[in-house]
Amino acid sequence: MSYWKFSDGTTVYSHADVVGPSPFAAHLRRELLCLAYGCGPLVWLPTQGHAVELDTTDDFLLAQWLEQEARLYKIQLVETDFHTTHPLLSPAEENGDHHGRVATD
Hints:
By secondary structure, the protein is of the alpha+beta class. The protein has three helices and seven strands; from the N terminus they run βββαββαβαβ. The protein has helices spanning 23-36, 59-73, 91-94, and strands at 3-6, 11-13, 17-19, 42-45, 50-53, 77-80, 102-103. The strands form two sheets. Strands 3-2-1-6 form a four-stranded antiparallel beta sheet, covered by helices on one side. It has a three-stranded antiparallel beta sheet with strand order 4-5-7. The longest helix is centred in the middle third of the chain and has 15 residues, at 59-73. The protein is globular. It starts with a strand and ends with a strand. The model is unreliable at 88-105 (pLDDT under 50).
């Protein structure tokens, strides 16, 4: 299980368990609620040139999404224990699994 701690006090654990009272934490919970209803957030994969639906069971996608959202709130990641085995792709993507629909330009 991985975790991500942000400069506003928000902490997120694997499977998208969001802890904290900040506006950023509230934003993440709203986005995840939308995901539960089928219209959740997309994760931009810059090295791939497209976005994929967030899969909260994939720590690689979760990490990418959290980084993307933190930039919008101008919040810094201050601590994490997450490390990917591949600098650009998760193991599932290396095998061709892109976790749902692909969005392109």
